[in-house]
Design brief:
This protein is an alpha+beta fold. The protein contains 6 helices and 16 strands. It folds into 2 domains: 4-144, no CATH class; 178-309, Nucleoside Triphosphate Pyrophosphohydrolase, CATH 3.90.79.10. The protein has helices at 24-33, 117-120, 126-144, 217-229, 278-285, 300-309, and strands spanning 35-40, 43-47, 50-51, 53-55, 66-73, 76-82, 113-114, 156-158, 163-165, 172-173, 178-187, 190-195, 207-210, 233-244, 249-258, 272-277. The mean pLDDT is 95.
Amino acid sequence: MKLAESVIFGGSGLDRAAHLRSDAGVMQTLRAEGRVLALWRGKPLVEEDALVWLGSGHPVIGTAATSVFLGMDAGAACFAADVSAWEPDTETGDGGFFDATVQRHPDLPPTTGFAELRGLMTRLSPREAELAATAKAILTWHATHGFCAACGEASVATMAGWQRDCPACRSHHFPRTDPVVIMLVTRGNSVLLGRNENWPEGMFSLLAGFIEPGETIEAAVRREVQEEAGILCGPVRYLASQPWPFPASLMLGAQTEAQTEAITIDPAELQEALWVTREEMVEVMAGLHPRIKPTRKGAIAHFLLQHWLADQLD
């Protein structure tokens, strides 16, 4: 797919400068001279449609539990810092599907705030989107993997934040990324959509599922579609991928042609699944369908459906 790398969060060509991570002296110099993106409980600090970068000596950064080197951007060293220990006075989200609240720190200008990345992703530049996604994913990993999986002792961040080491048993631990297949399942002029019972009313999307150990992308696509919707699929082809830091997935977009049409859903996986014609999908994407809402802009599901409608999958 020629447009594969134009998906949100991917394709900006960030120089991650991995060769610098092991040099503590270089990291110390870069941190003093570089810029830092603060994240509060996974939300990056922003002002309007841009990330807000702070100096390493800023009082907000001084409260950070973890700092990670993201890479070099136009000659500047970029870091991310987790400032989740700060307790805001303003309201916070309830843990639902989308947190629309914005938290404003007293040591920062009132025009800035910590905001949900899902709501920002289409407004950020490609480079800033990649930096924000990387920061959210790696800091979430640190927050949830603080103990050694081998012996249970507390581990410490090393390699500029790209590794955790156990001082007790000497085990090394690396950031986790979970591969997920997301399927553009077509049959003639129609595409298969499904919805989870926890999603907002009217929200449908492409079927998706985690790849299991020992499984290929192709096998995962066929298994997931059969398990969730009872539909048998034929050949599978890869289309595009998207880092999805909610919390740490790599979405692998694929297309397959359904060999059967009858839908039998697994209620543990889906609340509903249905075939939608190309003409209906035009209405859906325009926000004119009476029942189905458009997929979220920026998500790979929207990207694949948009290019399917425009005959741009090749």
